[in-house]
Amino acid sequence: MMHGITILKRGRIFVCTLLCCAVLGLELTAQYNYVDTNLVRRQINATQSDSVRSRLYGILAWEMRFSNQQKAVELADSMLLISSPSKEYVRLAEAYRVKGFVKVVNQDIEGCLQMYELGIQYAKKGKNKYYESAILNLIGGMHQDKGDYDKAIAFFLEAEKAAEESRSSEMIAFTANCMAEAYSDAGRPISFTRPFYEKALREVLPRENWQYAGMIHSNMAKEYMMANRPDSAMLETEASIGYLNKVKRKGYVYATCATDIGEMLTRLKAYKEAEQYLLEAYYILDSLKTKDNKLIVLSALSNLYVESGQYTKAIERGRTLLYLAGLYKSKIFLRNAYKVLSETAEKKGQKDSALLYYKAYKLWNDSIFNENKERTIANAESRMKQTLQAKENEQLKSSNTRLRNNSLLAAGVACILLLAALIIVLANRKIKQKNLVLETQKQLIEKQSAEKDILLREIHHRVKNNLQVVSSLLNLQAASISDQKAVDALMASQKRVKAISLIHQNLYAFDDLSTISFTSYVKELYQDLRQLYNKGNIELICTAATEQLEFDIERSVPLGLILNEVITNALKYAFEGREQGVIHISCSTEADGVLTIQVADNGIGLSIPFENHDSASLGFRIIRELTRQLKGTVSCEVNQGTCFIFRIPQHRLKA
Question: With the CA atoms of 479, 485, 486 and 489 taken in that order, what torsion angle do they form, in degrees rounded to the nearest 10?
């Protein structure tokens, strides 16, 4: 969202308003409530209770956080003045939440954190887990908007614990949605984040919170689209639209959902409908004076106009986005703005400008976000392991406590039976000594194991980064020469380096550092090659004998290069003159213990049999030599397409 400027990403404003209503005792109906500020002012003038007046100040201050920030701060200060003598800790927490929020909007991040920390302190004094979770979520959201997903997830984990302790349905739903978004931004797939979204839906649907339900479905739609699953994305988009059609009053949350829907429709090439939703969202946000939050919808509109060929509008929105992103120091949207301007300049034939903007885009994209995101995934997984270890330690402490109690009981009995007491004491000493030795050994083993995992992940990470550097150098070299054969050779080498790089990326991204998943690797490799050759209409079907079929690293590299050559050959030549086609990759185990991999297409077939191709074909030479290296065999059949069949001994493969 923003570089530490705002915490209003997607659903985070929902709980903030909900808190006001819940504390004031207002009726919480189906969705994001409209607050009649005139009615609140009349109630303030009519009440004789300082406590009630402080509560009313809180809701009025929150409603004025954008339109009149000075007045909002004055009302929060009045809350502090009224509630401090009576030690109404919840009201004090609410006041500091308002003051912190205003500081975020005005880019005072240090001041914001100070206010939020005070708010958490008073929430704890008031033993109010609901408010504690709410403010922790706001802090986590702020770090998420800065791109620091590691810190964001740490705060969301604390917020989740407080939400569960509060037993508040709306807070549990809110925290689950925030967790899903943070893990998604950190690179986790929809299969990992969907359970969090479903947990949130289970909490909001029974309360008919249509606006928030629409937001959750739009979040899932975006993730499905990023996973290249447009059918699932369309289903989630339709569900989101269905819920939003039930919303009567259209505020910030509605505008956020409308932005997500507009982005989905853009990717589905429904440009006219997409523009309607995005412009509606822009006007709502502009009327609410949300300032920096317009960056999301500006970015979405810019992309829409590029995709639909409206380059004049794309340039206008892109320059506005660049200006505002620089003003609010938003790294993410600076990157997006440069990307839009680069693509537009290229479409209009302005090569110098396109190259200049593209270099700026690559600078932001490569040096800031990719490495930070990869590091965050590893740190998040490490934190989850630490959390599980902490629970195990608590159980161990509890077990040790019971042992100590038993020892005391035995000592009491020993006072009566001196001989039995001596035996029990000696035995207890031996047990403690053994436990101490075992505990020391356990800690040493765990430390060594953790250090080994970290080193292995770092090695694979560095190898992957080095291979990416090699890939980039090959790309730059190709761009500087004019001989097409040389360019083709360099690009082929670049794809082979990329195939190896993907293997190391898979190795450090998951728990098992020694193997990679066959189906996951094939799908990632295919997506890269299909985009490179612009073959979006060629479908991949990948099946394996077992869901968790994995290869060790020694076999993964040659297998990856073989698959790279075969898929590349199919995409380049198999479908000439055809608009559609299918590449089917399967992996199965034969009765004789041999692993069989088949790569088949329904294309035009090889013009010369595979066995007759001479050694001048580098791709086929690579296929033959690497198959021989794996001590396997390769054959090729041509029948309504081409089918390569690899039979490889399984004695060094892991399944």
Answer: 100
